[in-house]
Model the fold of this input.
Amino acid sequence: MPDPAFGLDFGTTNSAIARVRPGEAPELAHFGSDQGPTATFRSVLYFDEEEGGPEARVRAGPTAIEGYLDSEEKDGRLVQSLKSFLASRLFSATNVFGRTWRLEDLIGALVGPLRREAESIYGEPVVRAVVGRPVHFVNADGPEAETLAIARLTASLHNAGFREVTFEYEPVGAAYHYERGLERDELILIADFGGGTSDFSLLRVGPSHAEAGRRAESILGHDGVGVAGDAFDGAIVRNLVSPRLGLGAQFVSQFGRTLPVPSWLYSHLERWHHVSFLKSRKTMQLLLDLRREAEEPEKLDALIRLVEEDLGFLLYRATERAKRELSEAEATTFRLEHEGLRIEGEVTRAEFEGWIAGELSAIEGCLDRILGGAGLSERDVDRVFLTGGSSFVPAVRRIFERRFGAERLRTGAELTSVASGLALRAAELGAG
Ligand SMILES: Nc1ncnc2c1ncn2[C@@H]1O[C@H](COP(=O)(O)OP(=O)(O)OP(=O)(O)O)[C@@H](O)[C@H]1O
Ligand SMILES: [Mg+2]
Done:
């Protein structure tokens, strides 16, 4: 009997694992969390100093967030969106509580517990898998950067205990999920909007493709762009939060000139994968110096607290909450409160859509490229399957409604379609 097949979706924000036994439907692994069992394992790590010892303790997934929220001092370190570093030559390692962690160690420490939990859930080894990859990694500026990202991801997966991995494009995973239950062949566009990347595949799927074997001609194209949910969050930070923390404020330089507070500080704040690395002695010193000369020192005080007390995750939570609320409502209040620190502001959906106009046009540009590259127009596409957490953003959905018409859109399994489909792909490769 062929082995069970596993699919791993290591996401920027959420990860998931699914198993397919021959002839059966995918089964997602469900992990324990404060809110009950969930198929999505948050892609975060939390480091704190082990009591009574010099070693840092590291926790992954739901327990990482619980560890961070339970710690009163917030003197540990919560790291997220690690996937977005894979193609960056500039980031290779970081020091956490005196130990050097390479990116491959960090991702290994995240995926390792996920893999082991899946083993205990399924009651069997999980050491071979089809693993998703974005069409283009965040910040990959060419083929060399993509190769670097894949090499690092492979090393990370080996560190996590996987022995054999096969990569597949994430939207192809989503296509296999979508294909189940189709009664007729279709030419589909998959659009997967995640935390780090937006990925597209154009392909023919359906019973005849699933049964007669896949042919190269049934894949019409892939494309992607490193713009998704994290970039939407960044727009909220840039437009709503940073001005309340001194962005655009003035300080008096040592030569008596009036200068703006350096904007790179705020661009770090806009990127979840950078925010927990702001807290260095050099940055803290700079912030204290700026504060002394600032025209509105209370704004800098708030920024200093955010960095010094490692409140990046609270900033993330408040930002993400506001963004999600704007998927449902026309307006909301952004609110971050922590022991006397208070950042608050109203935002309407229309304002938010203005803030992400650049991101939306990058996404639409990618859509134009994939259709153009395949020599197709909207009319040639039977259905569009929208998936990934950021497909809930109404402005993202609207692009597809406008271009394809609402009746051709399908949605669903936003956070799990990729993992389920990768497991189906793994089963197909195993049976082949
Ligand atoms: N209701 C919602 N409205 C807006 N955004 C949402 C909503 N729900 C989830 N998101 C966003 O979806 C993103 C996470 O989606 P998903 O889990 O598909 O990403 P991922 O697979 O981890 O990332 P990637 O595929 O880029 O590696 C986050 O940015 C999250 O804020
Ligand atoms: Mg994803």
Notes: Residues 11-14, 83, 170, 194-197, 228-230, 320, 323-324, 327, 388-390, 392-393, 415 surround adenosine-5'-triphosphate (ligand 1) (CB under 6 Å). Residues 230-355 form one domain. Residues 267 and 416 are 31 Å apart (CA to CA). The chain has a mean pLDDT of 94.
